[in-house]
């Protein structure tokens, strides 16, 4: 199996830890271990203090699976498989996609959501949003893309990189299209719980459709990316068995300390989420001001959910790869050009989940002003 290099991850690998202002990150700031433990309830603290560092259960710690199932309407701990989120994309694709299958995936997007299917010799069609309609993904366009050979529909809502979120009716229509053709769904919900307006929150796809698999994790919403803990909600027993068997060839089981720390994070999630949502709202307010100030350079659709948005750089002089290079080298600000999403040279991703976003945005603004003066 040969899989294309993951452009976005290689780009982050190159710059994330050396550029002072990561203005394109999709996660919230990593929580300190001391803070997470200080906020742990006594039972979790006991689990942590008495933790043995042996192998763990392949499907995931029962208490972790119980905490995860608590986020779903209809799934119990038996429907949960724990692994690193990116690993779960790989496992799910390998269990759901076969040579010659047709797959439809939201696009642009997180590359593994289509690259892994391609590496498995599936043909992938892109379901693209309409930027002019606020990055709306039209379910009727999805219906047009479905073929007799379509075996999987991959969706990612809240969407990375546009921040798009369908209405409940649109989302239900997506699942109805899948169900009417007996197509499985892989629903990447990594940014769920970070809706700007909580009433916009969509149910986990696995709660609405028995052939949908929901993917989520603690990386983005809880600021616990370093734990490498995520989960799939899977109601199809046979598929769950296949996934577990496949995990025996990737990590076998998850990291013991990470599982307990993820339990701590999930049990304390309300407080953590409230803080992250407040920071995102504050940073978005600043970004709104920035976009108004530079309306001659950018057009944008404010994100509806999650942490990222995908403004268009409307100034014709240079493309976003060059703009991002200059911002990085001259202002210490890291942005992601749309080339990393195979989506031309006119857009860039901005992320609003980080504490130092205000300072980074000021740096970016000063950089743009200095360029104007040239
Ligand atoms: C949409 C989406 N899915 C999956 C992942 C993978 O998550 P993790 O990096 O925690 O493995 C990411 C990370 O950026 C993502 O944006």
Structure, explained:
Helix content is 41%, strand content 14%. Helix 12 (269-293) runs parallel beside helix 14 (357-373). The longest helix has 25 residues, at 269-293. The chain has helices spanning 7-15, 33-38, 42-49, 62-69, 85-96, 112-119, 139-145, 168-180, 205-208, 237-247, 256-267, 269-293, 320-331, 357-373; strands at 21-22, 80-83, 102-106, 123-127, 150-156, 184-188, 212-217, 230-233, 298-299, 308-309, 312-313, 333-334, 336-337, 348-351. The chain is globular. With 374 residues, the protein is an alpha/beta fold. The termini are far apart. It is built from 14 helices and 14 strands. A seven-stranded mixed beta sheet has the order 2-8-7-6-5-3-4, sandwiched between helices. The chain has a three-stranded antiparallel beta sheet with strand order 10-14-13, covered by helices on one side. The structure holds pyridoxal-5'-phosphate (PLP).
